[in-house]
Design brief:
Layout lengths: L1 E4 L15 E7 L3 H12 L4 E4 L13 E2 L8 E2 H14 L3 E3 L3 E7 L2 E6 L4 E9 L3 E3 L15 E2 L2 H4 L7 E5 L3 H10 L5 E5 L9 H8 L4 E4 L2 E8 L3 E8 L5 E5 L2 E4 L3 E3 L30 E3 L11 H19 L1
Parallel strand pairs: 2-3, 2-9, 3-6, 9-20, 11-18, 12-13, 12-18, 13-14
Antiparallel strand pairs: 1-7, 4-5, 7-8, 8-9, 10-19, 15-16, 16-17
Helix pairs in contact: 1-2, 1-6, 4-5
The structure holds NADP nicotinamide-adenine-dinucleotide phosphate (NAP).
NADP nicotinamide-adenine-dinucleotide phosphate (NAP) binds next to helix 4.
């Protein structure tokens, strides 16, 4: 028997009536989990999605989505709502409670909820996504919520007519940096190399935006301030020089950490915790347990392939276990 403290997902936020047995329980209600729910419930499975916070996952905190087929441009929250409405339409239940732990014993898979109630599942889909990686430098933690942020949509409005730095050179950094130019007076991207990793279309927009500037080949050594952030200590990685960089806020987008920490010893994962799955069935190393979306080991992390993972996992589960 494997008994694992999975994660404490915090306080309940509203609740949806749940039963104590389901054909499929999906943990995580982002695009991957909700698409698994659409396919599972439409395929006749009694399906529960457990999502502790916002239905739609990261897209609910995304200003605009421009690369999901069928929508040239759609508000992230609106797309998130469409995903959950679609899952509910085919009969999936979405519960906003939290999971405390998972117990796998013999053929039995039990989800222990944060109120200690237990739900049994014939199959489980892990769709817990990933969270923003931290820099791990002095001052980052201390100034979180006081000028250090990981969410431009949530906190951008606090920086109207201010100068902010965005750390990172990937799609998130450039997407969110562009969003911040709508309110901030200046957005400086600080990147550790002299080339961005972001898609070319985003790079072009950033280079053409008069409010965006770039500091290349540099990393943050320390976040400093008084009551609020007012300075970054930067190090040029080419010549090793340190300099002060006065800013009013800093948005950190340096990649993702999978929400799988406590599953690591149960399921096969990469060294950095991304869950390994069969690339066709999306089944993990534990039979009947599937994983999809940003929490798995894969190359491309987009809404479209998160949704595709969910569809494949649910279809495989139906074929293999029902
Ligand atoms: P990412 O693509 O992994 O990029 C992380 C960036 O942070 C890279 O530029 C990396 O530098 C830099 N970095 C990593 N560790 C660092 C450190 N310790 N100090 C300073 N810089 C560091 O992560 P992401 O931008 O969060 O995107 C995650 C996934 O979501 C990607 O697959 C992305 O394509 C996808 N996404 C897509 C969209 C879209 O399609 N519009 C939007 C958002 C996210 P290097 O380049 O030198 O490695």
């Amino acid at each position: 028997m494997i008994d694992v403290v999975f994660f404490d997902l915090g306080d309940s936020q509203g609740s949806t009536e749940t039963k104590d047995q389901y054909d499929m329980v999906i943990i995580g209600g982002g695009p991957a989990g909700l698409t698994a729910a659409i396919y599972a419930s439409r395929g006749g499975l009694d399906t529960l999605v457990i999502e502790k916070s916002s239905e739609g996952g990261q897209i609910a905190a995304t200003e605009k989505v421009e690369n999901y087929p069928g929508f040239i441009s759609i508000d992230g929250l609106e797309l998130a709502e469409k995903f959950s409405d679609h899952a509910r339409h085919f009969g999936a239940t979405i519960s906003n409670r939290g999971v405390r732990n998972l117990t796998f014993c013999c053929d039995k898979k039990t989800i222990v909820m944060d109120d200690s109630s237990e739900i049994e599942a014939k199959t489980i889909v892990i769709a817990t996504g990933a969270t923003h990686r931290k820099l791990g430098v002095p001052g980052e933690k201390e100034y979180e919520g006081k000028g250090v942020s990981y969410c431009a949509i949530c906190d951008g409005a606090f920086f109207r007519d201010k100068h902010v730095a965005v750390i990172g050179g990937g799609n998130s950094a450039i997407d969110e940096g562009l969003y911040l130019t709508q309110t901030a007076s200046k957005v400086t991207v600080v990147h550790r190399r002299d080339k961005l990793r972001a898609d070319k279309i985003l790079q072009e927009r950033a280079f053409n935006n008069p409010k965006m500037e770039f500091v290349w080949d540099s990393v943050v050594e320390e976040v400093q301030g008084d009551a609020f952030v007012n300075n970054l200590v930067l190090k040029n990685v080419k010549d090793g020089t340190q300099s002060d960089f006065p800013v009013d806020g800093v948005f950190i987008y340096i990649g993702l950490v999978p929400n799988s920490a406590l599953l690591k010893n149960l399921l096969q994962t990469t060294h950095d915790g991304f869950i390994k799955v069969n690339p066709v069935t999306f089944e993990t190393s534990l039979p009947g347990v599937f994983a999809v979306g940003d929490v798995i080991d894969k190359e491309l992390r987009q809404i479209i392939n998160a949704a595709a993972d969910g569809a494949s996992a649910a279809s495989s589960a139906i074929k293999l276990y029902f």
